[in-house]
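Progress narrative, work stream C.
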Amino acid sequence: MRVLRIRVGIAAAVLLASVATAAGKGQQIPIGVNKYDYLVYKPLQEFDSRKYGDITKRGDAYNDHFHVIWDETRRVLFAFWTQASWEGAPDMHVCFSKSADKGMTWTKPVLLAGSETRQYPRTDAYYQQPLLTKSGRLYCLWTERNVGWGYVGSWSDDAGETWAQPAVMRIRPMDQDNPDPRIGANSINWQLPLRIGREGRYFVACSRHGKAPYDDKKGCKIEFWEFFNIDDDPDVREIRLDYFATNREALGVDKLLEGAEYFTPKKYPNGSPEGPAVEEASLVKLPDGRLFALMRSSVGSPVWSQSRDDGRTWSGLKVLVDANGKPFLHPRSPCPIYDRKGGEAASGEYFAFIHNTFDFNSTTACQPRPQLYLIAGRFDPKGEQPIRFAAPQLFAERTFGNSFYTSYTVVDGTGILWFPDVKYYLLGREIGSEWFTDGSD
């Protein structure tokens, strides 16, 4: 990897001299502030095109929900992400690229779904989730507005060279969904499904927004999905899901047991109160077979739950604490957790990301996203919290915009975090042993 670091370092120096500049303000968005080892995508449109871009050009100033998977058989990395002129723009689309040299170079991104430009907008597509079956079939599922209770998806049997006609995968509604099937469910799977379910099936956590009849107010909860038959290579319409921790058993703020300095925000200026939220869970497997879920919340800290029966049932929520029992502080922002050795390794070594700050006097839990810290953790079989985390270590140095909708691969023993920097550049950074040497033993 020494040669790779040198080559990417040169590229970073060149790109640093050619930064995106916000129109009329001189605000520079340089690459390299958040260190990286791999450059997957540098937008053609400048950062300020989020407001002033040419509607006839492909919108690519927003790049987010960055999912990279490693195909060991083909020796290829596949990358998927959501791209647009800006977050929520009418040209949101799903992109795909791949690398045959372990991330050094990447193919030109192709559009799998959605609108390429704002000039002729079609149905937008976003928040994709890829899955690779045992036979090598590559699926990509994504959200489209107005498709009802379901996801749209396609598949490829030739490593992404060609894709099948998209079809709809139906999902089961929850109590909090609108009863009109044309409106559909408000659901987001932001992490990659992992083979940590029963009998090695793909398993994923899903954020479900809404208000059930028995809820006090609208909010967000977590349920879990297991892909029962995906390795049979079904048509998208025939994909079967099993659902766990759903409806009254879903993980929400009402399931929080103890340890939180509860945060009750004031109303927004427009008078609309912020609802309670437990959302965007990420999963790891523990050496003893338990599943551990870490998720962001609206209480001022990440919260966690565990399952002793392959994800069928889950414990009440608790606030994430350090080795001294002190809660880690974190706004309503992504806080992913990964197994250092790979998604299904159950290695006992883990790492997560927090902002290490929260303002309890704020009017919202969705606070600024400043520097991001890595917390290294090791399995603690006797601990009430089964992963014992060390002190935070500075990872992302930007003072703003560190919204890490990330993924993680292990390629020939090298762990790589794939992250969208300022939701603009798409980068990769190696996670080495140096992060795991202090305080987590």
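Work stream C, second folded protein:
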Amino acid sequence: MRILQIAPLWIPVPPVTYGGTELVVSWLTEELVKRGHDVTLLASGDSRTSAKLIPIWPKSLWRARLSAPHAVFGLLYEKLCQIHKGFDIIHDHCEFYTTPFSKFLKPPVISTVHHPIYEEMVILFKKFPNVNYVAISNNQRQSAPGIKFAKTIYHGLPINEYPFNEEPQDYLLWLSKIIPQKGPADAIEVAKKTGEKLIVSGVVPKEYQDYFNYRLQPMIDGTQIRFVGASDFNKKIELFRNAKALLYPIRRSEPFGLVVIEAMACGTPVIAYREGSMGELIKDGENGFLVDSQEEMAEAIKKIGQIKRICCRRQVEKKFTREKMVNKYESLYNTLLKNGKKTKK
């Protein structure tokens, strides 16, 4: 198949540090190329891929620090309108940016929705039922009544790149983008209450620098609570595989939570708030714990030794591998082509 993948322009594909969407796009693109498909990637110029790369801007927009970064998306869609007829499938990862252009595109359009779906997104998506929306969890799908999803497809990772570790070190881990909704303050407070060591890793968005400086920094002592900055892939793997548990006190309806399966792939159990899709990723008491408060999280830490780390790994092998993810996308591509479903009516 001739497949066009459209990546967001904010972060390169794959990301240098933070960037869950861009990491999934990279995994999907590389596996499709490996399977013999003719794949083109629309992305920033600092992306790396074995597909045909069409760079829209020399640098990803967070790196470029432009005065009007959204204007670059205009260049993306100008290019898309030029080339769309040369593809069998268009697979979009930009969500609401691309949706309004879908009616001008000849091939079937698939849109994987990587983020929480808010009411204004529901209003927009309902106006374009020609798009084949893909949810990344059943919880995300249920959060958007009225949207006709083509399928729910869980993210999947290349399991061989996540080495299993049976014997972790004596620390807890929090790793994500440092924003209040991801719960870093809760994780630190729980660690302090329990006397556990905690490593905090993540990128601090510019708009949340004050949150980090005035809310989190005063609680980071460099001994019990350590902040190690943003992690590239190799550093992230080391942190995951050597942690005795990942704390994930999420404060929003998380549509998936890539760090959860990344930790479990290394054998590390996850203790998460019972929000969003967490119940689809974590089997309570088997590969982690689902809790509702800091107090319950603290109690779960005491029981972390009851979790067999191999059960965490097996959960990922069973449900969340890259092969399983790409198989489902390939099946959807084939179904749409077989049915002759076009986005332009």
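Confidence is low (pLDDT under 50) at residues 341-345. No further action is required on this item.
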